[in-house]
TrEMBL record, chain A:
<dbReference type="InterPro" id="IPR012340">
    <property type="entry name" value="NA-bd_OB-fold"/>
</dbReference>
<dbReference type="InterPro" id="IPR012309">
    <property type="entry name" value="DNA_ligase_ATP-dep_C"/>
</dbReference>
<protein>
    <recommendedName>
        <fullName>DNA ligase (ATP)</fullName>
        <ecNumber>6.5.1.1</ecNumber>
    </recommendedName>
</protein>
<dbReference type="InterPro" id="IPR026333">
    <property type="entry name" value="ATP_dep_DNA_lig_pp_1105_fam"/>
</dbReference>
<keyword id="KW-0233">DNA recombination</keyword>
<feature type="domain" description="ATP-dependent DNA ligase family profile">
    <location>
        <begin position="312"/>
        <end position="431"/>
    </location>
</feature>
<dbReference type="Pfam" id="PF04679">
    <property type="entry name" value="DNA_ligase_A_C"/>
</dbReference>
<keyword id="KW-0460">Magnesium</keyword>
<keyword id="KW-0436">Ligase</keyword>
<dbReference type="InterPro" id="IPR036599">
    <property type="entry name" value="DNA_ligase_N_sf"/>
</dbReference>
<dbReference type="InterPro" id="IPR012310">
    <property type="entry name" value="DNA_ligase_ATP-dep_cent"/>
</dbReference>
<keyword id="KW-0234">DNA repair</keyword>
<dbReference type="InterPro" id="IPR016059">
    <property type="entry name" value="DNA_ligase_ATP-dep_CS"/>
</dbReference>
<keyword id="KW-0131">Cell cycle</keyword>
<keyword id="KW-0067">ATP-binding</keyword>
<keyword id="KW-0227">DNA damage</keyword>
<dbReference type="Pfam" id="PF01068">
    <property type="entry name" value="DNA_ligase_A_M"/>
</dbReference>
Length: 536, 358
């Protein structure tokens, strides 16, 4: 089976939002593709298959030799994604009648081809493929394949296709390698069940509901425990006699990206916690952690500059003992006892925040301005560790954002999904211009928070109200007011306004509000952390 | 021989032929107009005198009403010369939609061809484009970027049919323009063997009937039925339903069984455009020339000078310069900006909403 078939699956998956439809597409793939292609496809989808053979730069060089630079730049600017631009603009070569390559063929050839011969190999394949096939190939060989299929979803589809329980598939999964011939043999009744030998297995996580005003009366110090909600990623640490694994919230095995955590898991337990970049016990902003995500391997330097740790908040298994049926308080006691005994490196405990009333909790939440704190977690003291999102047991209560009404000043076309929309907005606030009047000064940029409908509306508004163009940037009539929310305001010497916003995003379009009534810079300055008292 | 710029001007209303004192596809009402085809950004109401193909005049009357499709209407038979003042006017098929024509103008030995919108692919619902050599070729450039190379339309239709097999419980709602794309897609589905009734949103009915009246066979068609009771859904599982591109955003769609939203458009070539529209199955089927076809057409007409009315004129003008041709961007108003979907007014949400009530 050929790469175009895989390209077709990728495209359908990329455009299919529904889980059920995705499962149907995957089942069809497993049912219709031969070995080893279906297993290689599975590995590619679940991120098990990673090439670093071809850098995006190589692809760029190949296309540069075949296209006019101006036409390429205009195209790239329009499409917004390098791989897609190359896939679309790649000129057909007359006289090519080689068949498109097979998936297994590509994977094998990439591994054995010497680096110097790679450009020619790749160009030959690109010549033999159509645009969809070229896109799949480029994404595959540059390691940029992102399809929105979690390992869990792929395993569910496998289980459904084979009439197996997904827990069974999950159990045998660890320790198998692409193209999973023994797995498919078992699922099609042509081989024995692959042995799992006490391998670590992902256990479904307990999830939290957002806390809303009507839920407040049900919260109290007798029944609930409070913790900070840290801005990292949720992980499950699983150490069994058969191995160690670090799982993401979506059941992806992310062990490879965090070897120092794996090394520190010198115990037998299954734990729940938050993965954070921590320097001297201080949690770094999420942006630092982002540098470590989506990597299959990580350099020594990165481990040194972006050291990670896990803040533990629950224990699911202590050795072989399943603790999930115990109430939270009992599990917490077990966690603390286990921690004191084990003293694992690179880990600490998420502290419990004492509180006497909901009012006090509100004050604690409002007072939190540390960047790495997203808000509070509220957990019922008597609740078992329940899989999934069960209402009333765990709550997440994000801290309230700050906000100003600002005036849209400039807009820029976005990237990727938004490459043809004006989706990045620079907004400003009024300040005295020194001559008795008021002037707008830019205070930040936002490129999220709006709905698709709002984006379409703003995009159109910008096109109809452009006053000047600077490359990809448009200056617009200073007449559209947008409500911008952000997590914090800080002093900044690098910004003309002297203020920098953390994670600004658009809350609402205020088409009802005249620009003159937008906020003053002084209003924003009064929100700066540690300077609240100075505000008038 | 007079230079074409001396007798063809760009005015706020659009292209104006000075010696003939008429406009081509003017953006607002004028005393005398030649209309290339019936799409709303080319055919505007209330001109005093309109010269166009019989099909285009028919389409204009169907869309605008008898009274607004030109007070005087003159049918031009494609291929035949009409003289007006000193200008020889000839309409030549453009292959875009039913009745679409290029306008060939000769004056004092100088020839300008105004393409209107055109395509080079086979279209069972209209006459194919005929290249005419000229001194200035006035072209569109809707898909004037080398990333736009339309795949074979039959293969795209095959993708739709495969999806119908994989998801037989879902109505396949395809967003199409009411004029041209709808009928072409129906004809392509028939060629691919889909002989079941194809269901139409009310906004598409009239023009499909008109196509039939002009002899274009479309097979069994039916309006999408109203739900048994208000708000009920579940209709037309496994069927093909055609609607204007904006219909999927309205409450109208709720009557359909788990609708799988498809769209048939050249814009679907770029993934993020398809994604931004929330399309689940993009079908790259276009009624405009793609990049290669724009260049091939420009070669065929052998004009030393190319004027670009709208679309991605920057890339096309640059490509002309690489070939030693003079390219000129006209920036005609009202033809949709660089990268906006040219959505004809009848597909605007407001009118779709009216349609639900009707």
């Amino acid at each position: 089976m050929t790469l175009p078939a895989f390209a077709y699956l990728l495209e359908r998956l990329a455009f299919t939002p529904g889980r059920l439809a995705k499962l149907a597409l995957l089942r069809q793939w497993f049912a219709t593709q031969p070995d080893p292609d279906r297993g290689i496809g599975l590995a590619a989808l679940t991120g098990e298959l990673v090439f670093r053979a071809a850098k995006p730069g190589l692809v760029r060089e190949l296309v540069a030799a075949r296209t006019d630079p101006v036409l390429f730049d205009l195209s790239y600017d329009y499409v917004g994604d390098l791989a897609e631009t190359v896939a679309l603009i790649w000129p057909p070569r007359a006289g090519v009648n080689a068949p498109p390559p097979g998936l297994a063929e590509v994977v094998e050839a990439i591994e054995i081809t010497p680096k110097a011969a790679l450009p020619e190999l790749l160009a030959g394949w690109l010549d033999a493929l159509d645009a969809n096939g070229r896109l799949a190939l480029i994404k595959l060989v540059t390691g940029g394949l992102r399809v929105g299929v979690s390992a869990r979803l792929a395993k569910t589809a496998l289980a459904e296709w084979a009439g197996q329980d997904v827990a069974e598939v999950e159990e045998v999964w660890h320790g198998l390698t692409p193209p999973y011939l023994d797995l498919f043999a078992w699922l099609t009744g042509q081989g024995p069940r692959p042995s799992s030998e006490d391998r670590p297995v992902f256990r479904p996580l307990m999830l939290a509901h957002p806390l809303e005003e009507p839920d407040f009366p049900s919260i109290g110090p007798e029944t609930h425990r409070a913790e900070w909600k840290w801005d990292g990623i949720r992980v499950q640490l699983s150490a069994t006699p058969g191995g160690r694994a670090l799982w993401s919230r979506g059941a992806e095995d992310i062990s490879g990206g965090f070897p120092e955590i794996l090394a520190a898991m010198d115990f037998r337990a299954v734990l729940d916690g938050e993965l954070l970049v921590m320097r001297d016990g201080e949690v770094a902003p999420f942006a630092d952690l982002q540098q470590r995500l989506n990597r299959k391997v990580v350099s020594q330097k990165m481990q040194a500059t972006h050291p990670v740790g896990v803040r533990l908040y629950d224990i699911l298994f202590d050795g072989d003992e399943d603790l999930r049926a115990l109430p939270f308080d009992a599990r917490r006691a077990r966690l603390e006892g286990w921690f004191a005994r084990t003293r694992p490196g690179r880990m600490d405990l998420s502290e419990l925040i004492p509180f006497a009333s909901m009012a006090e909790l509100e004050a604690i939440r409002a007072g939190a301005r540390e960047a790495a704190i997203e808000g509070l977690m509220l957990k019922r003291a008597d609740s078992e560790y329940a899989a999934g999102r069960q209402k009333g047991k765990w709550w997440k209560w994000k801290r309230a954002p700050l906000g100003v009404d600002a005036v849209l000043m400039y807009a820029q076309r976005g990237h990727g999904k938004r490459s043809s929309f004006y989706s990045d907005f620079t907004f400003g606030l009024w300040r005295p211009d020194g001559q008795g009047g008021q002037e707008l000064v830019p205070v930040g940029k936002a490129y999220s928070g709006y709905t698709d409908q709002e984006l379409l509306w703003i995009d159109r508004w910008i096109r109809n109200n452009t006053t000047a163009r600077f490359g990809p940037v448009r200056e617009v009539e200073k007449s559209l007011v947008i409500e911008v929310i952000f997590d914090a305001a800080q002093r900044s010497g690098r910004h003309k306004s002297g203020v920098a916003l953390r994670f600004p995003r658009i809350a609402r379009l205020r088409t009802d509000k005249p620009a003159e009534e937008a906020d003053r810079l002084a209003t924003l300055e009064a929100m700066i952390v540690g300077e609240e008292a100075a505000a008038d | 021989m007079p230079h074409p710029e001396s007798w063809m001007r760009v005015t706020p209303q659009g292209l104006y032929c000075v010696p003939g004192d008429f406009f081509i596809d003017p953006g607002r009402a004028v005393p005398r107009a030649i209309i290339t085809h019936g799409h709303a950004d080319h055919a505007r109401p209330d001109h005093d005198h309109v010269l166009a193909s019989a099909e285009t005049l028919g389409i204009m009357q169907a869309r605008m009403g008898e009274g607004r499709a030109g007070r005087q209407r003159q049918v031009a038979v494609p291929g035949e010369v009409v003289r007006h003042r000193d200008v020889e006017i000839r309409l030549v098929p453009a292959g875009h939609v039913l009745g679409s024509c290029q306008v060939v103008l000769d004056w004092q030995g100088s020839r300008i061809v105004i393409s209107g919108d055109y395509k080079r692919r086979r279209d069972p619902t209209c006459a194919p484009f005929e290249p005419v050599t000229c001194d200035v070729f006035v072209t569109e450039a809707t898909f004037g970027l080398p990333v736009f190379r339309h795949p074979d339309a039959a293969a795209e239709v095959a993708r739709l049919l495969e999806s119908l097999r994989l998801f037989p419980d879902r109505a396949h709602l395809v967003g199409v323009y009411a004029l041209g794309k709808a009928q072409r897609l129906i004809a392509l589905l028939r060629e691919a063997g889909w002989d079941r009734t194809i269901y139409l949103h009310g906004a598409l009915l009239k023009l499909c009937e008109l196509y039939e009246a002009f002899g274009v066979k479309l097979g069994p068609l039916a309006p999408v039925p109203a739900p048994a009771k208000r708000g009920a859904g579940g209709l037309l599982a496994g069927e093909v339903v055609l609607a204007p591109p904006s219909a999927e955003a309205t409450a109208w769609i709720r009557r359909l069984a788990e609708p799988l939203v498809c769209a048939a458009s050249g814009w679907m070539r770029v993934r993020q455009r398809a994604k931004a529209r929330g399309v689940e199955l993009p079908l790259i089927i276009s009624d405009h020339a793609d990049w290669d076809e724009l260049l091939a057409t420009i070669d065929e007409v052998q004009a030393p000078e190319i004027w670009v009315t709208h679309g991605r004129d920057d890339a096309l003008v640059h490509a002309m310069a690489l070939r030693g041709l003079r390219g000129r961007a006209l920036h005609l108003l009202g033809r949709g900006e660089e990268d906006e979907d040219p959505v004809p007014p009848e597909t605007a949400p407001a009118e779709t909403a009216t349609e639900q009530i009707a």
